Amino acid sequence: MKLLPCTALAALFAASAAGAADISMPAAAPPPPMVVDWSGFYFGAEGGYGWLAGEIPETVFTAGKTEAASGGTAGVFVGYDHQFDNRMVIGIEGAYSYNWNDNDYVVSSPLPILNGQSVTFGTEWRASVEGRLGYAWGKALVYATGGYAATRLEGSFSLTGQNYDDVLNGWTAGLGVDYAFSDNVFGRLKVRYSDYGNTDLVTKATGLPGLSDTRLTQASITAGIGFKF
User: Fold this and answer.
1) How far apart are the C-alpha atoms of 200 and 195, rounded to whole Å?
2) Ramachandran class of 36: left when φ > 0, alpha when ψ lies in -120 to 50, beta otherwise
3) Angle subtended at Cα 155 by Cα 172 and Cα 217, rounded to the nearest 5 degrees
4) Which of 202, 221, 220 is nearest to 117 (CA)?
5) For residue 2, what is the DSSP state?
6) What whole-number distance in Å separates Cα of residue 54 and Cα of residue 182?
7) What is the pTM of this model?
8) 97 CB contacts (<8 Å, ≥6 apart)?
9) Angle CA 31–35–36, to nearest 5
10) 3-class SS at 156?
């Protein structure tokens, strides 16, 4: 009879141990997502599509007109980034591209000498130097850009039978995302808008002095691949 209390106590300890074994350990917290370090130099190539617009005032074209020239674009880029501890990234980038966007149209103008003439226009090359500000999110870098842009406008006018060209300077701004496939290779998607200001190309094309200037703008979307080191 004296063994009963001891037996009961042993059974109680055994049940407590079994219950403790049934209690699972809490799951370990998942590791934080890897953040790519974007600091360093990089270069790459890109291609896509662009839309060029020439806004011609109504004093030259009937009721005013916006002539568009769209087509493919391909180019290269090179730059440098610095990433801070808070994942903010600042950098500078230069780019050069070639455009295939010539357009032909017939002029409708209140000026008899221009009415019915045929015109071609488009841009040949585009160059830019931009600063960029972004945020590193896992393997992606989301950023905005802005800076200086220039392009070479070219074309012809049937009135004079001669070609014309002009280098225009302006500003550009864009949004983009770079995604790291590895420590040294990344993909890119970018949209940009450029405003090249006003040009007297109509005066140059026709040889008629005093005609109003034309404003030239361009939008594009490109995808590319880059290498950083």
Assistant:
1) 15
2) beta
3) 20
4) 202
5) T
6) 42
7) 0.78
8) 46, 73, 74, 75, 76, 125, 126, 127
9) 145
10) strand
DSSP state, residue 186: E
For residue 155, what are the contacts with CB-CB under 8 A and spacing of at least 6?
A: 102, 119, 120, 121, 122, 163, 164, 165, 201, 205
Length of the chain: 229
For residue 12, the one-letter residue type is L
Tokens of 63: 């009721």
Contacts of 34 (CB under 8 A, 6+ apart): 138, 139
Residue with tokens 């070639």: 98
Q: Which residues contact 197 (CB under 8 A, 6 or more apart)?
A: 168, 169, 170, 215, 216
Token pair recorded at residue 6: 């001891």
- Asked if 145 and 119 touch (Cβ cutoff 8 Å), the reply is no
Supply 226's token pair.
Answer: 């880059």
Walking along the chain (229 residues) 10 residues at a time, the average pLDDT comes out as: 49 49 56 80 98 74 67 97 97 97 79 78 93 96 98 84 85 98 97 92 72 86 97
Whose tokens are 């808008």? That residue is: 193
Query: How many other C-beta atoms lie within 10 A of the C-beta of residue 8?
Result: 9
For residues 120 and 107, what is the distance between their CA atoms, to the nearest angstrom? 10
Q: How distant, in Å, are the alpha carbons of 87, 88, 209 from that of 19?
A: 47, 50, 98
Using the CB atoms, write b or e for 114-126: b if 16+ within 10 Å.
beebebbbbbeeb
